[in-house]
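Please check what follows.
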Amino acid sequence: MREQEHQILEEEYENSAVPVEARKSVFSVSLVWVGFPMIMTSAVTGAAIVGGLGFWSGMLSILIGNLILFGYVGVLAMLSANKGYNFSLQSAITFGSKGARVVSGLLSTLVIGWFAVQTGLTGSSMHDAFGSSALLITLIAGVLYIVLTLFGVKALTYIGAVSAPFFFLIGLWAVYDATSNSGFSSITGFKGTGTISMGIAVTMVISLFADSGTMAADFNRWSRNKKQALAATFTAFPLACMIAMVFGGLIAAAASRNSDLFQYIAGKGGAVAFVSVLLLFLNLGSVCAHCLYNASVGWSSLTGRKMRGTAVVLGVIGTILAVSGAWNHFTDWLNLLGIIVPPIGAVILCDQLFLRREADISRTVRISAFAAWVVGALVGLIVDRFAPFLSTAVMSMLAGGLSYVIVTLTTANSSAAAEPGSKLIMDPAQKQS
């Protein structure tokens, strides 16, 4: 298996657990993660949060959102490293092998939308900065990002090793340049427009990676143990994601008229503008490859096909969506993800961490898991409609997890009460509700 690391195209284990001998070092898995959230989109989100809330409230929201992501994604990552399952297989433990087709199919489809959003952003950013053809650049970007994904998890490692440090250095320079003419008190005293609440801001942070964060198993199944999975996740949340968001927030507070990191750098002209183009393609290429990898692994597991062939089909679909203007629906996309995705991860987390630790894949549809997911999503919708000052992502997550615990324990206790002398033992041999 060690020979596989020297192959250009490695085995991706789309339909089975990653064997222990094929697992990768914590450094390799960390590179996969760090190149995902340290991106332009995170900086744009950080700028939007600080622009809407003001400096200190915005930074606090960014911190809270990232800590929640660390806890949420970190635990899911640890669970996946335990068995080496991808998300499709991991979700089959909680939702049943047949039920997981709905869950995995939904998330694997939603993440194609993220690929489309980032690919479309490549074209629109180039058009806004240099007047380039948005259509042509989007098509070129789509092809490049598909080819990159074909190299599998190894490509995610390599591009993370290049993209993240490059973003950090250029972002650091941009922040220094933007803040050099503004006093510290002026930046920290930035009030923002007051158009969003802290709850909405926290949801924006969580929603940005709610989908791929829930599908953390696709990346962390390569970790050798739980501790390494958690350590790798930490490099993404809060570390890499917070750096990118803080960069965007600082630029927004110091140069509110031009708070888009790419546009700010591209606007300098000359050699700096060339660097901005390189950064854009590396940066968005990284996140697009991650998203398309998630989608391809998910749909490969569902259809029994190989990841690379699936990546080509899904990449073409994503590129078509990008050309159609998916980027224009970015805000609506974040809102949708913040409502329907977090309860899925919360149900899996409660099931596999607390209630049925030794459970494995059951060939059923586990109605209790679906019921809890629906409850969580409904609570998110209610919060979004009637209490927008709260975080829909957090409330839907808590509601989904809590309702699953209540339903599962109630069902188990009822079964135990019906059989005198029986014990409540939560293991895979128990009834799959």
User: Anything to note?
Assistant: Confidence is low (pLDDT under 50) at residues 419-433. The first helix runs from residue 26 to 34. The CA atoms of residues 196 and 328 lie 19 Å apart. The chain is about 75% helix and 0% strand.
